[in-house]
Amino acid sequence: MQRRLLLTAALAEAALPTFAQTAWPSQTVKIVVPTGPGSSLDLIVRLMSDKLAARWGHTVVVDNKPGAGGMLGMDVVAKATDGHTIGIGFNGPLAYAPYLYAKTPYDPTKDLKAIVMTTSQANVLAINTERVPAKTVPEFVAWAKAQGGKMNYSSLGQGSSAHLTMELFLSEAGIQAVHVPFNGSPPAAMAVAQGTADATFMVAPALLPHVQSGKVRMIAISGDTKPDSLKDLPSLGEAGFPKVVSLAWNGLVGPASMSDAAVARVNADVNELLAKDTALRDAMAKNGLTAVGGSPADFRRFIDTDVARWGPVITKLGVKLN
User: Fold this and answer.
1) What is the pLDDT of residues 14-35, one digit of tens each?
2) Could you tell me which of 19, 86, 153, 236 has the fewest CB atoms within 10 Å of its CB?
3) Do residues 127 and 226 share a domain?
4) What's the rounded Cα separation, in Å, for the pair 179 and 190?
5) What is the pLDDT of residues 72-115, one digit of tens each?
6) How many domains does the chain have?
7) Number of Cβ within a 10 Å radius of residue 16
8) Could you tell me if residue 44 is inside a domain?
9) Helical (H) or strand (E) element with 6
10) 216: closest CA among 203, 200, 230?
11) Around Cβ 218, how many Cβ atoms within 10 Å?
12) Prediction pTM value
């Protein structure tokens, strides 16, 4: 009888689903980017995708899903059931959405699992060099006030860090302006370069080609910590607006159903790349991006802290989106 029980137990163990015994990944991995090609999020994922594919022994596919302020892409991740779909999220769809929308297609806390923070950097205030005759923040504020509410600004999407940073700045400076949202930073930066938008807040990558062409001027940064490539820019605090401090952060997330083992694997590999891959770090720094890393718990705490900070700000500003 004892031998029969041992044999039955052995057969039962052998009959366990194969995925429970298989190392992750076991197939192609899809990374959803909730912004368009050429955006800072797209750049981060594409800088890492080939390196991760080499480590995992499986193809990594980058899938751009821009729309709805990043919520379209994050909803794809939240509802994924293949065990091999993750995404890169940012402030708007991971932290601010519940304060901005009456209803969201997913719960950022319950339906998405934090994996690892990738980068965090301040937003840059940039202006069109032909339409805006300003080289400093005080000059820009004076010019903007003189427009009588006709100034407009672009952002990379409704409810994004870029959008909310500008709204906070306008409130602090006493400026009226029109918001023109785009799906991602490349078209928002292009709007400023072409003069269809007067100004913008966003991270540096999409702005740099237009700065080099002379069509866009960066005049301030929304944080005291600056990458070497932006060290000559004054902070908004130094320019007289100490309350306008913001970080445009991002990180990898998976659906709530993602296994702890898979989360640990992605976290470990991304952390090693961010810490030890000099070429990757240099490429990020060149584009004004600061690598972060850390544990899944670190990333979740950071998100929760940003929610606690910006939730009341969004409520006070009265920003509501449909």
Assistant:
1) 444 433 446 899 999 999 999 9
2) 19
3) yes
4) 15
5) 999 999 999 999 999 999 999 999 999 999 999 999 999 999 99
6) 2
7) 9
8) yes
9) helix 2-14
10) 200
11) 18
12) 0.84
Report how far apart, in Å, the C-alpha atoms of 133 and of each of 89, 136, 138, 238, 275 are. Answer: 36, 10, 12, 21, 42
Give the residue numbers spanning the domain of 169.
Answer: 122-230
pLDDT at 284: 93
Per the domain annotation, does 243 fall within a domain? no
Q: Which strands, in side-by-side order, build the sheet including 247-255?
A: 60-64, 29-33, 85-90, 247-255, 112-122
Instruction: Give pairs for 35-38: CB < 8 Å, separation 24+.
Output: 35/64, 35/66, 35/70, 35/73, 35/156, 35/157, 35/183, 35/184, 35/185, 36/64, 36/66, 36/183, 36/184, 36/186, 36/187, 37/64, 37/186, 38/184, 38/185, 38/186, 38/206
Which of 177, 204, 230 terminates a domain? The answer is 230
**Separation between Cα atoms, residue 49 and residue 67, nearest integer Å:** 22
CATH number of the domain bearing residue 283: 3.40.190.150
- Residue 113 shares a structural domain with residue 211: no
The reply to whether 115 and 130 lie within a common domain is no
CATH at 147: 3.40.190.10
